[in-house]
């Protein structure tokens, strides 16, 4: 079973068997200039390629989506994976990492969130060592900056991040974002007209989380109203 940890749970109540977002797969991720990275992650999900993958990119670039997608592929193969959202470290215990080295895929999302947090840095460092001793399986780590720019206080942890291969997750330009929105709409069973997509890009924040939230809202509204998406309908629903 693939696993993720909800950031709203208290440490004593954390359950690792939480379903991953079912719409965050490789099929729903528009690759843009990230084909090589996606190939590496797909290989990691089947136990091939690099044992350690470090990917970094700005907020909203899709880092968590790709980690969830890798876990989803492992899940589809009947194996176990875990994605630990380190931005929620205050609600979790570092002891969660104990035993995770036995899983075929472990993803540590938003590593920069624990920079300077001694107990978590040491827990991740020790996890790296246990993972290395075990051999086999894949480790995928995401952050917002290159490993040497994270401000980690434990030098040995920073050096561990250089064990594998690093990729910068390249953000989409506006045309790429339009294609990504149309892909997501297609997967949800409706069509996003190009003029509507361009309206979203011109009037809303260009980060993908905002754009996808607007797409979801439009999908639900058009279904309930039994109307196809159009510029007037979109302006009406979103107040543009």
The average pLDDT is 87
Helix percent reads: 40-55%
| Count of individual helical segments | 8
Return the structural class: alpha/beta
Rg computed from alpha carbons, rounded to a whole number of angstroms: 19 Å
Q: What would the CATH topology of the largest domain be?
A: Rossmann fold
The major beta sheet can be summarized as: 6 strands, parallel
The number of domains is 2
Shape: elongated
Number of E strands? 6
CATH superfamily of the largest domain: P-loop containing nucleotide triphosphate hydrolases
Classified by CATH, the class of the largest domain is Alpha Beta
Domain Hda lid: 174-238
Organism: Oceanimonas baumannii
GO biological process, one term: negative regulation of DNA-templated DNA replication initiation
Pfam family, one: Hda_lid
Structure at a glance:
With 240 residues, the protein is of the alpha/beta class. It has helices at 35-45, 63-76, 118-134, 155-160, 174-187, 194-203, 208-225, 231-238, and strands at residues 2-4, 52-56, 81-85, 105-109, 138-143, 165-168.
Annotation keywords:
2 domains; elongated; 240 residues; alpha/beta; disordered N terminus; Helicase, Ruva Protein, domain 3; Rossmann fold
3D structure, described in words:
The protein contains 8 helices and 6 strands, in the order βαβαββαβαβαααα. The chain has 240 residues and is of the alpha/beta class. The chain has a 6-stranded parallel beta sheet with strand order 1-3-4-5-2-6, covered by helices on one side. Helix 5 crosses helix 7 and helix 7 crosses helix 8. The longest helix is centred in the last third of the chain and has 18 residues, at 208-225. The chain is elongated. It comes from Oceanimonas baumannii. This is DnaA regulatory inactivator Hda. One of its GO terms (biological process) is negative regulation of DNA-templated DNA replication initiation. Residues 174-238 form the Hda lid domain.
């Amino acid at each position: 079973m693939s696993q993720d940890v909800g950031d709203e749970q208290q440490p004593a109540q954390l359950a690792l068997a939480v379903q991953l977002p079912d719409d965050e797969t490789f099929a729903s991720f528009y690759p843009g200039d990230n084909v090589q990275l996606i190939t590496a992650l797909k290989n990691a999900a089947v136990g091939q390629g690099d044992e350690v993958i470090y990917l970094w990119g700005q907020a909203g670039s899709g880092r968590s989506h790709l980690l969830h997608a890798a876990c989803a592929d492992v899940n589809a193969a009947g194996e176990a994976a875990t994605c630990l959202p380190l931005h929620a470290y205050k609600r979790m215990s570092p002891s969660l990492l104990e035993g995770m080295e036995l899983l075929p895929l472990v993803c540590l999302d938003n590593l920069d969130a624990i920079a300077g947090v001694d107990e978590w840095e040491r827990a991740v460092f020790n996890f790296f060592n246990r993972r290395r001793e075990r051999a086999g399986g894949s480790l995928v780590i995401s952050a917002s900056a290159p490993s040497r720019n994270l401000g980690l206080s434990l030098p040995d942890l920073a050096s561990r991040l250089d064990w594998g291969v690093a990729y910068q997750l390249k953000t989409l330009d506006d045309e790429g974002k339009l294609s990504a929105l149309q892909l997501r709409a297609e997967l949800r069973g409706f069509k996003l007209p190009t003029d509507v997509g361009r309206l979203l890009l011109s009037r809303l924040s260009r980060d993908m989380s905002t754009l996808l939230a607007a797409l979801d809202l439009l999908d639900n509204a058009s279904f309930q109203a039994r109307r196809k998406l159009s510029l007037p309908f979109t302006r009406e629903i979103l107040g543009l």
